[in-house]
Design goal:
about 240 residues, 9 strands, globular
Length: about 240
Amino acid sequence: LTFAMDVPEHNDLYRTSLKIARDSAMKYEHFADPQAVGTEAAERFVQEYQQAVAARGAFHVALSGGSTPVIVFRALRDKNLDWSKVHWYWSDERSVAPDHDQSNYKLAWDELFSHIGVNPAQVKRMEGELEPATAARRYAEILPEQLDLCYLGMGDDGHTASLFPDTLGLEATGRVVANFVDKLETWRITFTFAEINRSRAVHILATGANKAQILLEVKNRLVKHPIERVESPLWLLDEAAAKLL
């Protein structure tokens, strides 16, 4: 960059390099605690909803599992939105039935859908009770052309969705894959990175001090963690998670 600045004929190179540097920077905001992260995520949901509905008449959003999304779900209950315009999906699911306590679908139903009166026809769950490869294929067939918003979390090992370190799903093509996770001795159904990255917006929620070191490594682009393959997400963090950034 210094060379480009010193030599006038390299101004175009300078502008291009600066744009690349800015675009590749980690985009994050941090808040006092997980509750504040969830509240902000709900506000961002409303913004993305308004933009999508104004532009295309509908809002297609993929949810994630975990504890932080529960705060988002609860904050969304009081939003004055036309829920008939929202189509719901998931970025991943466990190989369990929809009424299982570990089901991401059940979590969303209990904490959000049952409180806002959604149309079941607009809730597109991953069929975790089916043979995983079949469930992945069936889910890819019902996805919209492009999601407006994809929610993700981050595990202590740097995984996101169900794309865990050292699993075949990391290199999968297509939109949805059945991914066997050795350390959990189970199958997961998950978006591929290609599907995540084709979303119009990706928001990653991460809270807790146990995420701080991984986030620093992600910011420094050490290429150690699966989540680094997500392109240009917006990170919503609490102070504990962001303390090293």
